[in-house]
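Quick question, first post here. What does this chain look like in 3D?
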Amino acid sequence: WDSESNKYNYKIILRLEQVERKSFIERLPNNIDVCLNGRQCKLPKLNTSKLKLDDINMAVSEEPELNSPASTDDDSIFLWRHNIPIELTEYLDLRTGLNNVLAVSWSNEPISFIVGVFVVQKLTWKDLLVELKKKPIRAYEKTIKFLKELHKSEVDFGVDTFTVTIKDPLTMQRMKLPARGVECVHFSCFDAISFLKMNEQKQTWLCPICKKQVKFENIEIDEYLLKIVQSPTLSEECENIILLKDGNWAETKTNAFSSNSKRKICESIII
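> Answer (accepted):
Ran it through. Tokens below.
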């Protein structure tokens, strides 16, 4: 406790995790209720999704009523909460030495969860960026192998090249630090800096491309695309890159040949 700022230096949070990964969506249990010292704790807001039941719960119970999450009158719309930390600090009394009583309950939930209480220190996006840059990155060779597999899977369709954007899907600006989640299966990346900034303001930790959960420890910088966006030969106006099947890439850009006509040209760049 900091007597000058009248605040705790650390925070106490509640986390829940699925015992087995059976839900497509990383969510909190249905009808969850968290009460600390007789006070109702603030929960993440409810979301509505027009999804199939199997997308919400990929578990089967012998009792039909346990297979359905909280739902509205429309059976195709389900109410659920993102699985993000639940703040407990403001409901605690850590200065008097008295016991703090925490009660967590939920119902109509076919998936098993474990509950944990953690003491944490809040880090800024800049702090996380420093830590992210210390982590191993996705090796250049690994991405090249992935690219060749993509080309191989499309060979029957006569596809020799792929086009990928180098714009961040969050800011629509050129990426500075291309990254994706370790479980993401798409080639496109998001900008890790923008991703950290966004989650500092509103914690969702969802990939902006495939919507899978991407926790901080699962963010992976892509060395191949990083070399491209840092290339001194990449023009400022370039937004998309053509990926060749041998791992080389070509820049697509628009050049003006007259005041009334424009056409796209490809400029091959070997890296």
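Residues 140-153 form the longest helix (14 residues).
The chain has five helices and 15 strands.
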